[in-house]
C-alpha cells in the first residue's frame, strides 16, 4: 500500500465551504434518509401500497431481530473475505494530492459469480429458506442501518490516525458534518479499501441476491414467477454485472477521487441501495403484474436502448480519456481547452452533455414500468434517481466550469442540452 505520510498540511486541508446546507442539513439528512427506507416499507407492503398513510407503522421493537443482524454481518464478512482473496487483479488508483497511489483489488466479478453459485446451491440443492429476505426485509434493512451508523463512527475515529489523507470536503471541524460527509478520503486497512469495497460489493451484489429471494417468495406465494419479476431481476442483475465487469472505472469517479467516506456513502452503499433499489421486486411479490408479450417487448426495448446509451457513452469517454488516438474514438470531433484536456462534442457526447445519465434514467424507467401503471411507489426509484442525477449533473457542471473556464461556456454552446435535447 502506498502511504499518505507526506506534509501535514497537504494531508489535512481545512474545509471552508459547506454542501447540503452544512451541519443542519446533514443532521436532517441523517434522520430522514433511514426514515425513507423504512417509510417505503410502511407505505408499500403486502397490505397497502399507496402514498396515503397506512393504518399502522412498524414500531421500533419490530426492527430488531438477531437472525437478520447475523445474516447481515455474515454477508458483509463473506464479501470482505472474497475481496481479499488473491484472485483477479491489483490496480493502482489515480494519483492522490500527496502524490501517492493506492492499490485496489479488482475481483468484483469473481465475487458476483461466487455469490450466484452460492445462492443457487443454497436454494435449489439445500432448499434453504432464502425467502427470509422478504419475511425479515425490515429487520435486514435495520441491521444495515445500524451497521452503517457504527461503521461511520469507526471511520470517523480512524480518520484521526497519523498520516490519514483527509477529504477536501470533510474536514470542517464540525463533528456531525464531517461524520456525514466523510473525513478520511480513502480509509484502508492493509490492502482492504473500505470505500471501494462498500461501493461495489455487499450492497450492490446484495441487491441482486435480495431480488432473487423476492422471486423465490413470489413463487412460494403465487405459485408462479411472472414475466415482470423475471424482467426486473434480469435488468438489475445485468446492471450490477456491468458495474463489476467495468469495476476499475470506479477508481476515477467523484465518489472515490473527491468524496470522503462517511455516513452518507456508507449508508448509501449498505442500506439505501439494497433496500430501496429492490422495491420493485418486493412489490411484485405482493402485486404480481402480468405483462402482455407486447408490453414485455416494449420494456425490453426501452431498457436495451437505455443500456446502449449508458454503456456506449461511458465507454466512449473512458476510451477517449485513456487513449484519444484509439480507432474507436479518433474520429470524434473535439474542443481543445486551455486546461489541456479536450472535450468531445460529437458522438454520444454531442447528443447532450450527460448521455450516460440519460441512459441510466431510461433504464430506471424500464425497471419501474415492469410494475405496471396502477401504483406510483414502484416509480420511486425513477423519481428519486432523476432528482439525484440532475443534482449530480449541476454539481459536475459547476466543477467543469471552474476547471475549464470560458472553454466550458464554448462547449455548452456547441452541446446545448444538458440531458434531453429540446427539453432540458
Ligand atoms: P461522468 O462519468 O459523467 O463524469 C463526469 C466527467 O466527465 C466530467 O467531470 C469531465 O471530467 C468528463 N466529461 C464531461 N463531459 C465530457 C466531454 N464532453 N468529453 C470528455 N469528457 C467529459 O460522471 P459520474 O461519475 O457522475 O457518472 C458515471 C456513471 O455512473 C454514469 O453513467 C451515472 O449514470 C452512473 N451513476 C449511477 C448511480 C447509481 O446509484 N446507480 C449514482 C451515480 C452515478 P474531465 O473533463 O476532468 O475528464
C-alpha end-to-end distance: 44 Å
Low-confidence stretches: 1-8
Number of strands: 8
H and E string: HHEEHEEHHHHEEHHHHHHHEEHHHH
Radius of gyration: 22 Å
Structural class: mainly alpha
Bound molecules: NADPH dihydro-nicotinamide-adenine-dinucleotide phosphate
Number of helices: 18
Side-by-side strand order of the widest sheet: 1-2
For the sheet with most strands, the description reads: 2 strands, antiparallel
Strand content: 5-15%
Q: What is the molecular shape?
A: globular
Which range best describes the helical content: under 10%, 10-25%, 25-40%, 40-55%, 55-70% or over 70%? Answer: 55-70%
The overall pLDDT, averaged over residues, is 92
Give the arrangement of secondary structure elements.
Layout: H1 8-11, H2 22-43, E1 44-45, E2 48-49, H3 66-84, E3 89-92, E4 103-106, H4 108-125, H5 132-135, H6 137-158, H7 175-181, E5 188-189, E6 192-193, H8 194-200, H9 202-222, H10 227-245, H11 254-257, H12 263-277, H13 279-286, H14 293-322, E7 334-336, E8 342-344, H15 348-351, H16 355-369, H17 380-404, H18 406-414
Helix pairs in contact: 2-6, 2-7, 2-12, 3-6, 6-12, 8-9, 8-12, 9-10, 9-12, 9-13, 10-13, 10-14, 14-16, 16-17, 17-18
Bound molecules: NADPH dihydro-nicotinamide-adenine-dinucleotide phosphate.
